[in-house]
Amino acid sequence: MVGAIGARVIIGAICDTVGPRMATAGVLLLIAPPVFCASLIVDRGGIIAVRFFIGIGLCIFVCNQFWAGTMFSPNCVGTVNATCGGWGNLGGKMGCLGKQITNDFRAPC
Asked: What are the residue ranges spanned by the domains of the chain?
């Protein structure tokens, strides 16, 4: 949670400086190695570090909202931002649902 809050504050200024496209690319490049290393975790410190960097990755939502706000006219930007945020939430919930369904069909240990 600490990584997510701090990154969201910082990413706004970065989006103003370099634009949302470059900010999104930078965040994705930053969090790709920790996500890859998640499979190598062997202790509590590893999970804390990976979760911290994944929390930083959550700031992409700010880039998304910034980008949508600049691409559409002011009379429809609220609807666009709500739709973008809603699709992101839907994707997260579908991922959780998929994990539950997969776990139900898994053979018991």
From this structure: 2-105
